[in-house]
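Weekly puzzle thread! Below is a chain. First person to post its structure in token form gets bragging rights.
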Amino acid sequence: MKWAQYGLNINAIAPGYMTTNNTAALRANEERNKSITERIPAGRWGMPEDLKGAAVFLSSSASDYVNGHILIIDGGWMAR
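Winning reply:
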């Protein structure tokens, strides 16, 4: 909030479970993978591409009046 007066918008993207190299072992564990996937309302792990739209939005003038927001991209995990 203190940076808004300087014309800076500080926001964040909070991804849920994403398909990346860092989660390969977790996804390879059939039981754990199934447990996680069943709890994601979208029914799948996120892909890095799922973050593109949010990143473009937050870095564009379309978000000029958005400040102090955390945009959760998790397939509905937090909405359960």
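Puzzle host: Confirmed. Bonus trivia for everyone else. Helices lie at 24-28, 30-39, 52-58.
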